[in-house]
Write a structure and sequence with these properties.
alpha+beta
């Protein structure tokens, strides 16, 4: 028996943009359904927003996205911030999305793409526990923890 865990990110109006961005970073296939696709009258506000979004890639990357009805402020729900201070990570965010790669070079490619318009919490570099580790908060407010797993 196997089990699969997939982060399900709840956005305030920009789930489609986030899923398309993550697809540009990790590749894969996206399925994006709107509220209108599931029966909401198309003329109602928010009908074009995402009720079900799933991105899956052959490299194992999976993420889901959803737009909270009636919210249009953009960014991920729960928001918050993460920063480094005195060699400690301080955060009031409920979760991070963690990615791991077998090689630093592969991880660097994902990192560079995610880092566009992001806030770097900790630069990607060798650490005491990994050949590469870094943290950033992307343009959608999602904080990513990236590490070399080999």
């Amino acid at each position: 028996m196997t089990i699969q865990t997939t982060p399900h990110l709840n956005f305030r109006g920009d789930a489609r943009q986030a899923l398309e961005f993550y697809q540009s970073v990790f590749g894969g296939n996206a399925v994006i359904n709107t509220y209108a696709d599931f029966g909401m009258p198309a003329e109602l506000p928010g009908a074009e927003k995402v009720v079900f979004g799933l991105l899956t890639a052959e490299n194992g990357f999976r993420v889901m996205g959803y737009d909270i009805p009636g919210q249009t402020e953009g960014s991920i729900a729960g928001g918050g911030s993460t920063r480094r201070e005195n060699n400690t990570t301080l955060t009031d965010q409920a979760l991070f999305v963690s990615i791991g790669s077998d090689s630093f070079d592969e991880l660097q490619g994902y990192w560079d793409a995610l880092a566009v318009d992001a806030v770097i919490v900790e630069p990607l570099a060798a650490s005491a526990w990994s050949a590469g580790f870094g943290m950033l908060t992307d343009r959608f407010g999602v904080t990513w923890s990236a590490s070399v797993t080999a």
